[in-house]
Amino acid sequence: MESILTTAVLDVFKRKTGTLGRKIALDDILDAIKFDGDSRREGIDYTNILSPTEDVVPTSKLEYVGLRNLKIDVKYTDRR
């Protein structure tokens, strides 16, 4: 699951047409974790983002938002 989620979050930060100068909202990151396309990702009950704590905004309209590091911890639980 960690590799799948890592790929999904990295895709949010990829440089794509239309993303120059645009912010990355925390909801964008959460949606990448919770959803696989239009369907809910199987096995994800909740997420907790420690950092960033708010939307990431580029310093100018001519910059992309970058990702310096990424750490994803997956904990399996038994919900009853």
Can you give a write-up of this model?
The protein has 80 residues and is mainly α. The protein has one domain. It is 25% helix and 5% strand. It has helices at 2-12, 26-34, and strands at residues 35-36, 39-40. Strands 1-2 form a two-stranded antiparallel ribbon. Helix 1 (2-12) runs antiparallel to helix 2. The longest helix has 11 residues, at 2-12. The radius of gyration is 14 Å and the shape is elongated. It starts with a helix and ends in a 40-residue tail after the last strand.
How would you summarize the topology of this molecule?
Layout: H1 2-12, H2 26-34, E1 35-36, E2 39-40
Antiparallel strand pairs: 1-2
Helix pairs in contact: 1-2
Share in helix: 25-40%
| Count of discrete structural domains | 1
Mean pLDDT: 92
What's the arrangement of strands in the largest beta sheet? 1-2
Q: Give the ordered list of helices and strands.
A: HHEE
Largest sheet: 2 strands, antiparallel
Principal-axes shape call: elongated
Radius of gyration: 14 Å
Count of individual beta strands: 2
Query: Low-confidence runs (pLDDT<50, min 5 residues)?
Result: none
Strand content: 5-15%
**Structure annotation, total helices:** 2
| First-residue to last-residue Cα separation | 21 Å
Write a compact overview of the structure shown:
This protein has helices at residues 2-12, 26-34, and strands at 35-36, 39-40. It is mostly helical and 80 residues long.
